[in-house]
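Thread title: Can someone regenerate the structure for this chain?

I was given the following input by a collaborator and told the matching structure tokens would be attached. They weren't. Posting the sequence so someone can regenerate them.
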Amino acid sequence: MASITSESFKTGFLPTWCPGCGDYGIWTALKIALAKLGIGPDDALLVYGIGCHGNMYDWMRTYAFEGLHGRALPVAQGAKVANHKLPVICVCGDGDCLGEGGNHFIHAAKRNPNVTVLIHDNQVYGLTTGQASPTAKPGFKTKSTPDGVTDEPINPLTLALTAGATFVARGFAGDIPGLSELIVQAISHKGFSVLDMLQPCVTFDKVHTYAWYRSRLYKLEQPENKIRAIEKAMEWGDKIPLGVLYKEEKPTSEDREPALEKSTLVESSLDVADLPLLLSEFK
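Best answer:
Regenerated them for you:
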């Protein structure tokens, strides 16, 4: 059997992202991480949201599903319940996951399914040409906020921490080796893993550039307790932390589901003779 490398995920189609887009770094880091973990094209399910990130569906050779805008997490959780032995990775954007999908994000974190969430965080809706996203900072000028954003941004890290995620980290699309290692850790963690990935949008965000981030980013030495992790998550401006902020081991939603104790649902069979008894439970 041929070894799995980043080349294993080629589809024959080339990305159409803008030259210099942070999505290229994330795409490359994800392929490297999957190869390191020995997860090949047939070994996992990637669930995509709608946005520039979702176009990765066309040039990433894996089993995949692209859901409705903001609805990637319900699909990912459904797949995980059906086959809880299958690695399920949700690739979403800050607008997709934290805007339309914000409610799903909160309740998924609370349930703690063994699902990995990779958030492309660029503060804009890039696919629809640069409106402000839920993570856009006050004063940031976009097509939808020509005088600058006036409301407070959603912080993906503090939201994940307070909602119950058991692995919370931040990476940078301009640091492919570091980002690929964080993706490895996120996928390897058993529980709801959230990796917020700072992704420069070179076309619609002229403020948060690669140079802007590199002058501010610093790496955390080790995960913190939850209170310290929240404090680190709230750092933004002259100093922005990268790395694993928090992780803990807790039973997942699959662990707590009696129907999954003996086998996965996809391995189970329903005998026709059992059907009358099953239906009688609903009378």
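Strands lie at 45-48, 63-66, 88-93, 116-121, 124-125, 131-132, 167-172, 193-198, 217-219, 240-247.
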